[in-house]
TrEMBL record:
It is a multi-pass membrane protein. The keyword Transmembrane applies. Residues 12-415 form the Major facilitator superfamily (MFS) profile domain. GO terms for cellular component: plasma membrane. Its main location: membrane. One of its GO terms (molecular function) is transmembrane transporter activity. The keyword Zinc does not apply. This is MFS transporter. It comes from Staphylococcus lloydii. InterPro entries: MFS (IPR011701), MFS_dom (IPR020846), MFS_Na/Anion_cotransporter (IPR050382), MFS_trans_sf (IPR036259), Sugar_P_transporter (IPR000849). SUPFAM superfamilies: MFS general substrate transporter (SSF103473). CDD domains: MFS_ExuT_GudP_like. The chain crosses the membrane at residues 6-25, 46-66, 78-96, 139-160, 166-185, 229-250, 270-286, 298-319, 325-349, 361-383, 389-410.
């Protein structure tokens, strides 16, 4: 009788889902307590936006190095170090009061979170089959954007009970506990894990999209000659530009534009991220199904990503045309859901293009994404002070149209790493 295949790889997908929740709760809790934190530290919107931008700067600068290091030393070691690092700087965010030191802390917090996605991309390349990478990639992303769903509720509860500094202390301690758990359970390859039975090991090894498990250096000369390498990064610049803007400023927008009080902010600011979480998982499943049915990777990744961008533009237009809070939140939820679909397909396409070097390709993509994330909080704060929130948000449609065009040049069916290159 044939041995029943174990499903250890999917337990790790769930582990990445939890890590994503922790990471983005650590990142987004600062936006929920923006008002009391700004008042206590005497910051205006531009000052506060700079905190987010410096996080993104540290995060962006370490993306390519993180991809290289994840490929060289393995995702287990890199993610363990990252969890400890960013949890420590989460705690320090609540300790430091000096503006200059606080900017440094948030920059180093960004450095610490940088290895998370490249490590996940390397892990997924070796642990999942070709037809499972859409769902595998979507688990970390879904966790990342489920974090902001529950972050307002938990953050406000901690703030009301203990003050805003305690938010960072408690979140940091949870991060340390997750780091310990990950370092105990994780392995870089399914071949190394005792709980993976022979049936699952054989299935993964026969169907994953890698040429070799040997350590080697990414062929940058080949990458830099391919326009798809740049197109992937360009459209992801827009994805993270948009997401970072909403992550940092959505609670403030709802407070200033629609008069939502801090005590009532939990659902209004959390609902859009819940919709985003659901649509990221749905898109990953649909994408893999399309691929398993024999369709092209452009159909499975590109068409779905473009659809997400179109949904974003339509929903944003209607969100800004209504004064009703409930209608506004519904349309904003579809906005973030649409951009979440596009983001999920970006990561799946990065593993398609990168194969053995998914860490390097995803790090490159995420570096440019986080340059976008660096710019958007500052630009949004600047423009919101001068032309108002509605006009500021309407301008976002321009780069989104550009991202749609870029997807026609991503070409996920044509890997950046050909067999002869290996």
């Amino acid at each position: 009788m044939k041995e029943k295949r174990s499903n250890v790889r999917w337990y790790f997908a769930i582990a990445f889902f939890v890590i994503g929740i922790i990471a983005y709760m650590d990142r987004s809790n600062i936006s929920v307590i923006a008002k009391p934190m700004m008042e206590d530290l005497h910051m205006n919107k531009t000052h506060f936006g700079l905190l987010a931008s410096l996080f993104s700067l540290g995060y962006a600068l370490m993306q390519v190095p993180s991809g290289f290091l994840a490929e060289k030393y393995g995702p287990k070691k890199m993610l363990s170090i990252a969890l400890v690092w960013w949890s420590a700087f989460t705690i320090l965010t609540g300790v430091v009061k000096n503006h200059g030191l606080l900017y440094t802390v948030r920059f180093l917090f960004g450095v610490g979170e940088a290895p998370m996605y490249p490590s996940n991309a390397v892990f997924n390349s070796f642990w999942f089959s070709k037809g499972e990478k859409g769902r595998a990639s979507s688990m970390l992303l879904a966790g990342s954007y489920f974090g902001p769903v529950i972050a307002p509720i938990i953050t406000i509860a901690i703030y009301n009970a203990f003050g805003w500094q305690a938010v960072f202390y408690i979140f940091g301690v949870v991060g340390f506990l997750i780091a310990i758990l990950w370092s105990i359970i994780a392995k870089d390859l399914p071949e190394q894990h005792k709980m993976v039975n022979e049936a699952e090991k054989e299935y993964i090894m026969n169907n994953r999209d890698v040429v070799s498990t040997e350590k080697s250096v990414a062929p940058w000369n080949n990458f830099l000659k391919r326009f798809s390498f740049y197109a992937l990064a360009a459209q992801y610049f827009v994805v993270q530009f948009v997401i970072s803007l909403f992550l940092i400023w959505l609670p403030t927008y709802l407070t200033e534009q629609h008069g939502v009080q801090l005590k009532d902010l939990g659902f209004a600011s959390g609902a859009p991220w819940l919709v985003m979480f659901i649509l990221i998982l749905t898109a990953g499943t649909v994408s893999d199904k399309i691929l398993q049915n024999g369709k092209s990777k452009f159909m499975a990744r590109g068409v779905i990503a473009i659809t997400g961008f179109v949904v974003f533009c339509i929903a944003l237009f209607f969100a800004l045309k209504t004064d009703n809070l409930v209608a506004n939140v519904v349309w904003l939820s579809l906005c973030l859901g649409g951009i979440g679909i596009s983001m999920g397909m970006s990561w799946a396409a990065a593993t398609d293009l990168g194969r053995n070097f998914a860490g390097t390709v995803s790090g490159w993509m995420n570096m440019w994404g986080n340059i976008g994330a660096l710019l958007s909080p500052l630009l949004a704060g600047f423009f919101a002070d001068r032309i108002g929130w509605n006009n500021t948000l309407m301008l976002i449609m321009v780069p989104v149209v550009f991202a749609i065009v870029m997807w026609f040049f991503v070409k996920p069916d044509h890997s950046l790493v050909e067999n002869k290159t290996q």
